[in-house]
Amino acid sequence: MKWMQLPLGPLQTNAYLLINSKRECLVIDPGSEGEALIQYIEEKGWTPLAVLLTHAHFDHIGAVDSVRDHWKVPVYLHKKEKNWLMDPSLNGSQFFQLGAITAKPADILIQEEGNLIISDFTLEVLFTPGHSPGSVSFYHEESKVVFAGDALFAGSIGRTDLPGGDHNRLIKSIHDKLLVLPEETTVLSGHGMTTTIEREMDSNPFLNGF
Fold first, then answer.
1. Which residues pair with residue 180 across a beta bridge?
2. Structure confidence by residue, pLDDT tens digits, 27-85
3. Which cofactors does the annotated protein need, by name (predicted)?
4. Do the Cβ atoms of 182 and 115 come closer than 8 Å?
5. CATH number assigned to the domain covering 2-208
6. Distant-in-sequence, close-in-space partners of 117: CB < 8 Å, separation ≥ 6
7. pLDDT < 50: residue spans in the chain
């Protein structure tokens, strides 16, 4: 399998596509520019099977309905954020000068950690709250990648000053759920460049007290 990173929208939020050999794909965090994203996927000849959300902040959900409606696929979101897609005060869009950003409710609420199987795709759902109360990360062992949303960045961690944020809980999530992954695991973050678990263990100042 292969993956693609697509920075979208004014905040350059990273959307990701995970593609299998049958040219099926999963769309992870489609944050904006729905028409452009749809055009790109169609030009590649890929067929989305689902939309997976690491969390429901506004910059990760702007193209959710565009993708869902175009391909008639389900949207997955953790149960702790079931109301966030519809509520600008929860998803944070009301606090920024971008207008209210909303989407229809998720089709499938993630209830717990464990394997999520969609066609040939098997991802391990890791509950990584702190940036938001329902943040999850999706670990794809076969590709040696983890889609970490806004929990962990190259040299940084997610902000915790939006509704439901909790700095101490985020640090615990990172240590307990992400840093225990194989060190060669590539971290695919919600913003910025990719990194690895090893690199963040060794040099991330937020995790090492530098």
1. none
2. 999 999 999 999 999 999 999 999 999 999 999 999 999 999 999 999 999 999 999 99
3. Zn(2+)
4. no
5. 3.60.15.10
6. none
7. 210
**Which strand ranges, in their side-by-side order, compose the sheet holding 2-8?**
2-8, 13-19, 24-28, 47-52, 75-78, 108-110
Radius of gyration of the chain (CA): 16
Rounded Cα gap, residues 166 and 64, in angstroms: 26
What pLDDT score does 209 carry?
58
pLDDT for the residue numbered 96 = 82
- Convert the chain into a string of H (helix), E (strand) and C (coil): CEEEEEEECCCCEEEEEEECCCCEEEEECCCCCHHHHHHHHHHHCCEEEEEECCCCCHHHCCCHHHHHHHHCCCEEEEHHHCCHHHCHHHHCHHHCCCCCCCCCCCCEEECCCEEEEECCEEEEEEECCCCCCCCEEEEEHHHCEEEEECCEECCEECCCCCCCCCHHHHHHHHHHHHCCCCCCCEEEECCCCCEEHHHHHHHCHHHHCC
State the pLDDT at residue 210.
40
- The distance from CA 14 to its chain's CA centroid, rounded to whole angstroms, is 8
For the chain, the domains span: 2-208
pLDDT, residue 95, reads 86
